[in-house]
Structure formats: structure tokens, C-alpha cells
Amino acid sequence: MTGSLLGISLAAGVIVGLGLHLAVWRARPSTRPRIRLLAGLAALSLAASVATYALLGGRSGVELCALLWIETFLMIAYFFVYAGVARSVSVTILSSVLRAPDGQVRFAELLDSYERSSRFADRLALMAEHGLVEMRGQRVSLAPRGAALSRVVSLLNRLTATELQG
Amino acid sequence: MSDGQAILLAGGAALAAWLLVAVAHIGSLCLAQGARRHDVLSAAVFVGGGVVGAIGVWVVASSVPAPLRLGAVCLYVAGLVGYVELRSLLSRGYSLRMLRELRGQEAGWSVAQLQERYAGGRGLPGLLRRRLESLERLGLLTQQADRVGPLTPLGRVGTRLAAGWRGLLRMDGVG
């Protein structure tokens, strides 16, 4: 009984979260990652799981905790996949190669399609909107908030032995 | 054992194992800096440590109810996934690198200049080359001279899934 109660509650949360995610993203397409909105839907998904568990008569704190931990894992795993789907340059490259008639693309063509696209400008516009950079016409400079974030990233690079290659 | 104690034990085991794996991984990277195949060592330490950690959580939490035990392992794996995501962002962050380029440039740059000087002057070609090297190393595609492709069978499956999901979410022109 415990297993099926947890399974049903978990499934309810996943269906609500994923269903709303698909519905909102399809109804309002955007090139922005919308991470905050996705995090909000994840919170709704957790709430749906907890509500289903309570409605079906679940009363154990241990089970509730297990439910939340398992769903947290699913959400973080999905955020990982979503980051690749929504932002990954590698996925874009692979898609271009897959679409090519003979399954091959010249490097120059790949570069040209990147340079002609608005991807670089889109990222700058998004950063300007979040107060990280300042745009004056075609000129871009670092805003105080962007400088602070860049310093935090440098510190994290040292702490985690990573190098920001971009 | 009370419910509270069981939750503390299981959660504590997951957190401790996650911390140990992360510290061991970062420590091994610091020690192996400059080594020839440090990427292989890094992957070996992370995967090996990750498996040992999962077994450790399972064993330490053996006295708690089964669902909580499973939950603790899931929580631990979630921590590892988050760790990988953070490392990926800190080393491959496209936007974060733009911020880095703009540091110390009081007057700023034009968009074209920034695009050209991106990643220490390697620009967009450097960004694409690095991604292609990684994809080839992961066995997702092959390259011959200046021709990129074809995809390997694994690359085709992965790309169809990712591009299909991108299409389903109507996220065209991203990445």
C-alpha cells in the first residue's frame, strides 16, 4: 500500500508539473529560458504530490519526506535536461548536422549560421534586462550587478577547480 | 527509532556522501592539474566515488524504512546532478564568459567586438571548435578535416530526443 500511495502521489505531481510546463511553453513560445517560471511550476508539482498524498489518506512524516526527496531528484534531473534543451550550443550543432542532407556540414557553414543568427544578441539582451550589462546602441558594457556576478563566478571557479572557457 | 531520527539519519547520510564525493573530486582535480589525461582521472574519480557514495548511503540508511532509504539515495544523486550542472555552467557558461570579457573595459565594446574577442580572442570559431571536440570525445559525432559529421548512432538518438523535446516546447532559435 505504501509503495502504491507514494507512486500515485509522485505521478500526480509529475503529471501536473510536466503538463503545465508543456501547456505554457507551447501556448507562449519564447527563446528565453524562463527558469523562474519553471521553478514555480516545480513548486506547484511538489504541492500537487503532497496534496494527493494527503487526500489519499497518507499521514506518515517519513513517507512524506521520502516523497519530497524522490521528487526533488526528478526535478533536478529535469532541470539538467532542460538546460541542455534550452541553452546548449552542442545540441544546436548536433541538430544542424542531423538535418544536413548528407549528414555532414562544413565548419564554415556552421559558423556562418551562428554568426547570422540572433543568438549572441539575444543573450546580451537578456543580460541587459536582468541588469548585468548596459546597452547603449550597439555598445555594451558591464553593469555593477554583472561585475559582482563575474567576481562570484571567478571565486567559484577557484573553489571548484574549474576554468571558465565559455 | 523515531520518525525524526530516521529522517535525520537518511538525510545526513545523503548529504555527507555528496560532500565527500564533491571534495574528493575537486581534490583530485587540484592534485592532477597539468597531468596529461586529467579529464579521464576526473571522470573516473567522479563516477567511482559516485557509485561508492550511493552504496554508502544505502548501507548507512539500512535501519530506516525502505521508502526513506530510497529517498535518501535519490537525494544524494540529485546532489551529484546539481554538482555536474554547476561545474558545467562554471566552465561552459556562454553568457558568464561574456561578462568576463567585459571586465576591465570601462568604455565597453561594440557587439561585433565582443563577438570577436570572446573567450580570449578565440571568438565564435573557438567556441564551436571546443564544443565539437567535446562532442567527438563523447562519441556523438565524427569530424573529417573541415567537415563536421556524420553523427554516430548514439549521437543520432540523443539529438533526436533533445531536438524533439526542443520542438515540443517550441523553443526554436535557442542554444
User: Based on CA inertia axes, which overall geometry of chain B fits?
Assistant: extended
Largest sheet of chain B: 2 strands, antiparallel
What is the alpha-carbon Rg of chain B in Å? 21 Å
SSE order of chain A, one letter for each helix or strand: HHHHEHHEEH
Estimate percent helicity of chain B: over 70%
Strand order of the largest sheet of chain A: 2-3
What is the SS-derived class of chain A? mainly alpha
Describe the structure.
The complex is a heterodimer of chains A (166) and B (175). Chain A is mainly α and 166 residues long. Chain A folds into two domains: 2-87, no CATH class; 91-159, no CATH class. Chain A has seven helices and three strands; from the N terminus they run ααααβααββα. Chain A has helices at 2-27, 35-55, 61-87, 89-99, 107-116, 119-129, 144-159; strands spanning 105-106, 133-136, 139-142. Chain A has a two-stranded antiparallel ribbon. In chain A, a hairpin with a 2-residue loop joins strand 2 and strand 3 (139-142). In chain A, helix 1 (2-27) packs antiparallel against helix 2 (35-55), helix 1 (2-27) packs parallel to helix 3 and helix 2 runs antiparallel to helix 3 (61-87). The longest helix of chain A has 27 residues, at 61-87. The termini of chain B are far apart. In chain B, helix 1 (3-31) packs parallel to helix 3 and helix 2 (38-60) packs antiparallel against helix 3. Helix content of chain B is 74%, strand content 6%. Chain B folds into three domains: 3-92; 94-135, no CATH class; 138-175, no CATH class. Chain B has helices spanning 3-31, 38-60, 66-92, 94-102, 111-121, 123-137, 153-168, and strands spanning 109-110, 141-144, 147-151. In chain B, strand 2 (141-144) and strand 3 (147-151) form a beta hairpin. Chain B is mostly helical. Classes of the chains: A mainly alpha (166), B mainly alpha (175). The interface between A and B is large, with 90 and 89 residues. Strand 3 (139-142) of chain A pairs antiparallel with strand 1 of chain B, so a sheet runs across the interface.
